[in-house]
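Worked example (supplementary).
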Amino acid sequence: MPNPPHEPYELTVLNPATEEVIATVPGATADDVDRAVRRAAAAQRTWAALAPGDRARTLRRFAAVVDAHVPELAALEVREAGHTLGNARWEAGNVRDLLDYAAGGVERLMGRQIPVPGGLDVTLLEPLGVVGVIAPWNFPLPIAAWGTAPALAAGNAVLLKPAETTPLTALRLAELGLEAGLPEYLFQVLPGAGSVAGDALVTHPGVAKIVFTGSTAVGKSIMAKCADRLKRVTLELGGKSPNIVFADADLEAAAASAPMSFLDNSGQDCCARTRILVQESVHDRFLDLLAPAVHAVRVGDPADEDTQMGPLISRAQRDRVRGYVPADHPGIRGRCPDGPGFWFPPTVLTDLAPDAPVAVEEVFGPVAVVLPFRDEEDAVRLANATEYGLSGSVWTRDVGRALRVCGAVAAGNLSVNSHSSVRYWTPFGGFKQSGLGRELGPDALAAFTETKNVFLSTEV
Ligand code: NAP
Ligand code: MG
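After joint prediction of all chains, the assembly is encoded as:
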């Protein structure tokens, strides 16, 4: 039952590795969102009026304060999201880097001068106003910052709604922003339910743009609601990304890297390479190499330095993942702790029909499938046989083939002989039902501006 939009309510935050309650947080109501939008609008006007250098300096200070709190933010991420300590440190550092990178864009956010007769034509890149960022629980810190940092840098105010399960790092980030000297109310966090706080942001006339990361179903419903006011929208949605292994690849390297390409963050990663497509002639040999690599992944206490994979975020997510994995199906299964915590073992399923639900739908857990293919054409056909198009990897020693396959796979982020997808300075986003628009990279700030064309006559 969704909470009524105007009634007070609370969020209960669990440690997913122990199931212990670690905090309760008041949830934002529709009235809280309305108040926040009004305050943000006033703060935005002050912020946008500052000299670019002053905005940039404030964001650099924000980055420095985040840097000084990386251990604290990482510890919080381990506790509320079950991320491994190594990942959590990287994630907190990523927020710092995003703020630094965005700060470098403030003085470089330039319009154009276009030749016209009878005057001067220039384009101005104006901030949108108040931007709503709706973040998921799988990478609470980085994804919050993907939207927030460039939006602030481009002169906007930001209202961030974190996922219900992971509000704590976002709340701390807003405190650090104030400590760094951001104007009050410029960056506010509204912890709350998607159906209440999220929906209030999406439908509020004072919010100019929504940046959403999460499920394709919710993303579509948000886009439909934004259409009502032509509200700007960026969507980063699901994925079911292929890892295409050709017979001429370095098979040892491909097999050694395959496990963490879908087990990192317990598979709760929109870029997870969960469809391992292997050329028929090396299929069995690849599985022989893959099995020990899967068994070697260390699953356990996320706060332990050596752990590679922690628990899933919640009981609901574990039930969802379990529902995709038929008992006793052939494949490779790793081990995980039993007892409290939302654990699920590393799992690779073989001998599946290519259109089985687990082979085409986003599972968002530590589960991959291995499907054989005949030749290059068959590999591309299989790689494109999902509604998603976010990421993918191609393993081959043939440069021409690597380029042909990257050209033919309909996805926004591809890597050859590696599984890298996300760098804050390169663009990221999906084809097909994986999303709309791009985040990160050199154009990140422009996505938070409106272009205004101004013509000045020289004839009067
Ligand atoms: P979700 O519902 O799409 O959640 C993402 C964010 O949207 C959360 O902050 C959520 O708030 C909010 N939200 C939910 N309904 C909303 C609405 N009607 N209006 C505005 N905001 C709303 O995702 P989920 O239910 O947590 O996860 C389900 C599946 O989505 C996963 O199994 C996975 O397949 C996919 N997913 C993908 C990504 C990704 O990175 N692409 C991230 C997360 C999930 P609440 O916390 O209150 O729900
Ligand atoms: Mg949901």
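Two points are worth noting when inspecting this output. The first helix runs from residue 30 to 49. Residues 242-422 form a domain with the Aldehyde Dehydrogenase; Chain A, domain 2 fold (CATH 3.40.309.10).
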